[in-house]
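User: My collaborator and I are trying to settle a disagreement about how two of our proteins should look. Neither of us wants to argue from intuition anymore, so we agreed to look at predicted structures for both before our next call. Could you fold the first one, then the second, and keep them clearly separated?

Assistant: That sounds like a sensible way to settle it. I'll keep them separate. The first protein:
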Amino acid sequence: MSSTGRGTNGPAVTMRDVAKAAGVSVATVSHVVNDKAGARIGEDARRRVQDAVARLGYRPNALAKTLSQGGSRFIGLVADAIATTPFAGQIIHGAQDEAWKHGYVLLVANTEGDPVVEDDVISMMLEHQVHGILYSTWYHREIVVPTMLQQTDTVLVDCFTADAALPAVVPDERQGGRTATELLLAAGHRRVAFINTTTSSPARTDRLAGYRDALASAGIEFDGALVVDAEPQQEGGYSAAEEIVRLGVTAVFCHNDRVAMGLYDGLRERGLRIPEDVAVVGFDNQDVIAAHLRPPLTTVALPHYELGAAGVRILLGIDAPTAGSTLIACPPVLRASIA
């Protein structure tokens, strides 16, 4: 997606090529070639860009020029890896459906976290005069926003900045943790363990907070000994099984479905049945895991589809952004791992 023009001898020429040749930033090249009104560019820098454009044979995309005259119907989505992660790819699906509903086409770029590729694809989207850009990560976390996103309206999806300078749409991890725990409490369990992740993240802190909220609402005193840290993989859940058995709990809320999968194996090796002896709830609703465990795993879904759709609605001004971050509810998915 970084090839935006054709050189005189055939090879693709990008804004990055022009910027390097002119000794300026890609943003400066974008301002010059798109004749951006109000851009403060010195005459020397403008001349160097124009000379580089002529020397390299760079040609701004003709379609972008046409669209800029009548208003672009493109929305960009720049992602670090979600196009290659099955359940998180629903962000693209939700954004695409919502964009199409309002007469827009989604331009998707998967950068695999490479900052050079990221700059190139954002440059291309700016040349196409996109209405705005959704910037997304494959898991919920704090980020530093690429400088080039300052050139257009941007909504962050499944990520946020420390200063909340840009509108963000993220899963309500705390509500999700509370919902997961309430499912177990509603089934009559009073000694409920939580296998939490060792990875520093909003998921670690907020799901724990939700767990504590649910216990407090049920009049159950929080016991830190019932919170077991484990690596957020199948092996983490498997290793935690010994501690879960030692604690003598009747129910476990797992940080994610992969941890629950490992816990299933560890409990079975110790002769315990799910859900008769120990009830289990996961988090993520990673269908390839949760729906195919035996018994199928009750879990809480990360709302990836709605994250993408809500991001588009905020970008288009249909929904107003919430101060800080817009929280999207994580719904329960009931299966057969609770008794």
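The second protein, kept apart from the first:
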Amino acid sequence: MTLRCYNTGMVSPAPGTSLRRHRLATRLWHWTNAVALIILLGSGLGISNAHPRLYWGRYGANFDHAWASLPHFPGWLTIPSGYNLAISRRWHLMFALVFAFGLLIYMVASLLNRHFQRDLAIRREDVSPHHLIDDVRHHLDFHFHDPEQPLRYNSLQKWSYIAVIFALLPLMIATGLALSPGMDAAWPWLLQLFGGRQSARSVHFLAASLLGGFTVVHLVLVILAGVVNEVRSMVSGWWRVPA
């Protein structure tokens, strides 16, 4: 039995019903982004190992005051596995382009197919503290879907995706551009916006850490919600209503 039901509020679909969940643009961006993010985080940690200290302001060197000293990341986390700053930078810069243009194309496609308007539009209930607390309780009870509207994004999903897509990812891209000497020459205001190169580097690292944390939580929730069903829906687009 197949039922096309997308946030309509109609009769609850029966368990086992296949629903069209993810459009092609979302699926392509998801897997492209997954590969790019893994390489960006790994190569970024390799770059961090070259000078594992963070500063605020324009300058930062061995004898300057660092607000944070980072650990030396092991080879199984970095790209490449052995220390090589030049290769880490090449991987990082190449997949930064994939990451940035992939986000741009996804945003345009999501506006055209109304994915943002349909799934991420904030409603009155999404800003209600009582509703948000209930949403947290449902997650703790492993109830991730509304039985009447299983394809509808819950409030926690909406806020987390909005924060990542419209704030965290653009911040990563903007601070990455600010760290490029070539972009500094073309857009000097970008580096001034973050208060200097070292401030931009610190913000870039913090944003990357938040994005890595989001990825870990996302993977845990995928496993708890049913990894086979969730991954199948992101490959084929079709999702089965669980019992």
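Some points you might bring to the call about the second protein. DSSP finds eight helices and four strands in the chain. The two ends are 15 Å apart (CA to CA).
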